[in-house]
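Protein data sheet
==================
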Amino acid sequence: MAKQKAVESPFSRLIQVGVVVKDLDKVVERLTSLGIGPFTSMHKPDDAEEWFRGKPMKAKFKISGAKLGEIVLELIQPLEGKSPHQEFLDNQGEGIQHIAFAVDDLDREVDRLTKKGVSVLLSANLPKARVAYLDLGAGGLVIELMQEK
């Protein structure tokens, strides 16, 4: 009997935990006082192409990240516009909004998951990566899949 090659799960390379906050500066100050950090400001590139629920997204954010071992803690403060982050803040309040995984083939994984009823909240084409936020339809879980270019 031939042994089949195991297919790597798209959920095997956790790279980030995304937390939506109301006041990024206040949260960074508090976490830093607890020994978490250092935090680095992150900026969305001007040439980023993003779609929220299939429509072009022009939202603005304050973003800061800190490396926690091999994982990045990403803090996101929505400033204006419709986005999954603002939607989360409006509906849930502050908290973990997504967890992100690195994948080798974003299109394959998104196709595979949407065929199982998962919905795409956000898709983005960034200079260094392509990403998709996916609502798993279970337990309020949203994941981000990221494929580096």
Summary: Residues 45 and 126 are 7 Å apart (CA to CA). Strands lie at 14-20, 40-42, 49-52, 55-56, 60-68, 71-80, 95-102, 119-125, 129-135, 142-148.
